[in-house]
Automatic annotation (TrEMBL):
This is Nucleoside triphosphate pyrophosphohydrolase. Pfam families: MazG (PF03819). GO terms for molecular function: nucleoside triphosphate diphosphatase activity. The gene is mazG. The keyword Hydrolase applies. Keywords: Hydrolase. Residues 35-108, 170-230 form the NTP pyrophosphohydrolase MazG-like domain. Its EC number is 3.6.1.9. The keyword Cytoplasm does not apply.
Length: 273
């Protein structure tokens, strides 16, 4: 095993051998031996986000490494599954390969390829629904998803069986209702009720985004990036004055924020022109 582990160019067999060696109970790495599915799961999520981050930044020089890190997570789980007699890398690959064939009858079956992307999405969802037959509507929406993304997936599942507002106006009415309940919780109720009402409002916000055709996770990432960018401009402006944000006040920083916002809008207008 050590021969293939040390030999460049071994590709996937080399990576699988390296992971098996690291997990060897007698000669492996103590840290790797101690890990289990639960302890590795956070790293898996983190690596997936790092791939998404590289894509969002157009950091293509980083993508190979980030995808390798994500692949390592799959290999890690596969090795632990093999040790417990549950599954292995081959069975994982075979299962997803068969799923792709089954869900693309217009490629590997008798179905026609002459249909729109929207129809293909509908067919994909129908195939998934058939696979979920006998389960509850919301079963299988992963608990480990970011809460905002999971909210949208739960709402989409419920909408497929008719549990949904018919139009955006109804969602906006619900948002106003939740805002009033949030104010009441702030003024008259305790922290637990306040947290619950805040959660309800965020859930409705996710639903509003869904009805508007906006990905709320992507929209919030954009807002985070905008906030980071503009606050950096505040810090730069203050640094030119020989001060830090802690040595400024809200009024001054608000003015600098507005100036940064105005510059962005002007830049956007010029780029459109």
């Amino acid at each position: 095993m050590d021969d293939i582990c040390r030999t460049p160019g071994g590709g996937l067999p080399r990576l699988l051998a390296i992971m098996a060696r690291l997990r060897d109970p007698e000669t492996g790495c103590p840290w790797d031996i101690e890990q289990d599915f639960a302890s590795i799961a956070p790293y898996t999520i983190e690596e997936a986000y790092e791939v998404a981050d590289a894509i969002e930044r157009d950091a293509w020089d980083e993508m190979e490494g980030e995808l390798g890190d994500l692949l390592l997570q799959v290999v890690y789980h596969a090795q632990m599954g093999e040790e417990e007699g549950r599954f292995d890398f081959h069975s994982i690959a075979e299962r997803v390969a068969q799923k792709m064939v089954d869900r693309h009858p217009h490629i590997w079956g008798d179905a026609s390829r002459e249909k729109s992307a929207e129809q293909q999405i509908a067919d994909w969802e129908a195939a998934k629904a058939k696979e979920r037959a006998g389960r509850r509507t919301l079963d299988g929406v992963a608990l480990g998803l970011p809460a905002l993304l999971r909210a949208v997936k739960l709402q989409n599942r419920a909408a497929r069986v008719g549990f949904d507002w018919p139009e955006t106006t109804a969602v906006l009415d619900k948002l106003r209702e939740e805002a009033a309940e949030l104010v009441e919780a702030r003024d008259r109720l305790g922290p637990a009720a306040l947290a619950e009402e805040m959660g309800d409002m965020l859930f409705v916000m996710a639903n509003l985004a869904r009805h508007l055709g906006v990905d709320p996770e992507e929209a919030l990432r954009g807002a985070n990036a905008k906030f980071t960018r503009r606050f950096a401009e505040i810090e730069d402006a203050l640094a030119r004055l020989g001060r830090s944000p802690a040595e400024s006040d809200l009024a001054e920083m608000d003015a600098l924020w507005d100036a940064a916002k105005a510059r962005e809008k002007m830049s956007d207008k010029k780029s459109r022109d």
